[in-house]
Design a protein that fits this description.
The structure is a homodimer. Chain A has about 375 residues and is α/β, with parallel strands linked by helices. Chain A has 2 domains: about 260 residues, 3-Layer(aba) Sandwich (Rossmann fold), CATH 3.40.50; about 100 residues, Rna Polymerase Sigma Factor, Chain: A (Orthogonal Bundle), CATH 1.10.1740. Helices cover about 35% and strands about 15% of the residues of chain A. The first copy, chain A, contains 11 helices and 14 strands. In chain A, the strands form 4 sheets. In chain A, strands 1-4-8-5-11-12-13-14 form an 8-stranded mixed sheet, with helices on both faces. Chain A has a two-stranded antiparallel ribbon with strand order 2-3. Chain A has a two-stranded parallel ribbon with strand order 6-7. In chain A, helix 2 links the parallel strand 11 and strand 12. The longest helix of chain A has 18 residues. The model of chain A has no long low-confidence stretch (mean pLDDT about 95).
Chain lengths: ~375, ~375
């Protein structure tokens, strides 16, 4: 069944920077049916390069990015739950972002787009949820940057969140995480085609964006999974080429993933969304993570993966320990996987089981 | 005392690719005195971006890159040993590389420079050692790419190596290691100023090279050491700037290190030397690492560091286990350090002690 993309428009959105955006469009999709009491809604929060198309088959024939987790009988069982996913603020897949037209000028915002935060992204999602008449979400769930949003939801709107599942994420970006994002930004801004962000209608900074994406892909995989997938296998060669064409399979993979990304992602969105992640710090303004999480009312299920070195398990444990220190209800699962950070997207068998069980309990109490 | 840079020239060098280079210049430095029997020579092998200036004070007033390890009374005690360090083939610090003038054309080689291997780098070093009248080195030692050269020496010239100390290295580059190098190469080649490698006498591809170096620096540090050194500290700001200038200390550091590197390193050398590392695979042509190491005659001391995730300890253990499986003489030290891959350069107290003791024994047997 083909999923219909949906769109909502809001008159204005106040941002943490003090700026205001108006209007703001939100692209979203829904799967399953909202029940009469509107108590079975689950908000899925996408990662950095994701979009609203989380499940089902799109008009382009492509399955959603978490179709292995969302659908009839799946972990997010659409026979039981009403699942919503929206593209994030600052994105380039239907929600207002730097590539959107600024109504004040008639031109794309480009770098005049205001710098946004995870708090802003979640504030816009709250407006969408309100507009659907949903007062309280049964669950907010996401991996990586989606997990940051899940945490932000629980902190910003404690009465609107019955449960939260932050996966492979952190309560604040570390120096190393900021560093990897900064390299990506510098790669884009070093590309002359970036042109201060003004490339719309022209050649986009594809070379810089591809390099940024290549760095990203290395951090999403584990040393082990790269060894298993590529090892030192040569690409279409019996021996070293002694040139600078592709020698190794892993080079071919990275070049392909880099160039593919350029076709579907906006370089300025890369800048803005990575910045939002780098600014993410729940400690900020609260003194401690425990203090920040104290006012949450959700049940938590925190998930991390053994081989994820980009968002290592110790960062999930910081969240778990902070919640426990304030007697919040939290379960923690460190799942064994060789897939690195990608595990939450590709190695989902165990993850599906723990989420299914957790959701069933939350549903018994709240639906 | 200021160290005098030295230079040697060789008529020609045969390369693994089948090509021949002629002539070939080698920049090197020496510290201490060669004894009458020429049995106290130690060859120090530099890492990717190093050079021949390993110890003492250069004409520019700068100490050598391993001055904390080499000198009177230090681990490589120049009162006892004659220490040699040369810039690698393909480099840009005095030894022939892509920025050198091709005598056949009168222009820099640029990308007409032949692709080289660690084997080629070591073959040229052997010519230098021969020219100094040294038949057998008391020790070959280096970290990272220097460790690859140490291993290659032990395999290629078993009778010329009494002992070898490969530090923080591998017997073959993994998919992840190749991937990080490939990202650096792509960043350079994506810079329009790279211009197919023909930028000598013009603006070099500084933006691409800086991005490549930034990626490198992240891999040289550990998550922990970045947290200790930078954390989330802001740079000259009380709060987020909500712009794309520098917010965080770690961003400032990376940008600085990137731009600084452009002043001292040649982008084409980056391409050639990373390629040599990626091609490094002692298993290649031998069937197994144990078979490759079987004909070595050196005593080995293998060193790795707990927080080094770029050249993790398991890669050192592969070397150790292969040597042990063929009854070669090998000691292994995994040293505790938070400094990541940089540890062999900056966290040297324990490393100095184990090397001092190892060398003393080798010297008793061989000097």
């Amino acid at each position: 069944m083909v999923v219909e993309p949906k769109q909502a428009r809001f008159e204005s959105l106040s941002l943490d920077s003090g700026a205001t955006l108006s209007p703001v469009d939100v692209a979203y999709e829904t799967y399953g049916e909202l029940n009469r009491n509107k108590t079975n809604a689950v908000l899925i929060l996408h990662a950095f390069s994701g979009d609203a198309h989380a499940a089902g088959i799109g008009h382009d024939g492509k399955p959603g990015w978490w179709d292995n987790m969302i659908g009839p009988g799946k972990a997010f069982d659409t026979d039981r739950y009403f699942v919503i996913c929206s593209n994030v603020l600052g994105g380039c897949r239907g929600t207002t972002g730097p590539s959107s037209i600024n109504p004040a000028t008639g031109c794309p915002y480009a770098m005049t787009f205001p710098v946004i935060t995870i708090g802003d992204i979640v504030r816009l999602q709250k407006m969408l949820i309100d507009s659907l008449g949903i007062e309280r979400l049964l669950c907010v769930c996401g991996g990586s940057m989606g997990g940051m949003q899940a945490l932000q939801w629980a902190v910003s709107y404690p009465d609107a969140v019955a449960s939260a599942i932050p996966i492979a994420t952190t309560a604040r970006h570390s120096a190393q995480q900021i560093a990897f994002n900064e390299v990506g930004r510098q790669a884009i801004m070093a590309d002359p085609d970036w042109n201060g962000g003004n490339y719309y209608g022209r050649k986009p900074p594809g070379r810089g964006l591809a390099v940024a994406r290549m760095v990203g892909h290395i951090t999403y995989m584990s040393d082990d999974s790269m060894r298993e997938k590529f090892g030192r296998r040569l690409r279409h060669r019996e021996q070293y080429g002694f040139d600078f064409e592709v020698d190794f399979e892993v080079e071919s993979y990275l070049r392909y993933r880099g160039s593919q990304f350029v076709d579907r992602f906006d370089a300025n969105s890369y800048l803005y969304i990575t910045k939002a992640m780098d600014y993410f710090d729940l400690v900020n303004g609260h003194g401690s993570l425990a203090a920040a999480l104290e006012k949450t009312k959700a049940r938590f299920l925190v998930i991390s993966f053994t081989s994820d070195w980009l968002y290592p398990s110790y960062q999930s444990l910081e969240i778990v320990n902070a919640l426990r220190s304030r007697n919040r209800d939290v379960a923690y699962c460190e799942l064994a996987s060789n897939y690195g950070h990608d595990a939450f997207l590709v190695d989902v068998a165990e993850q599906a089981e723990v989420i299914r069980g957790f959701l069933a309990r939350v549903a018994r109490e709240n639906v």
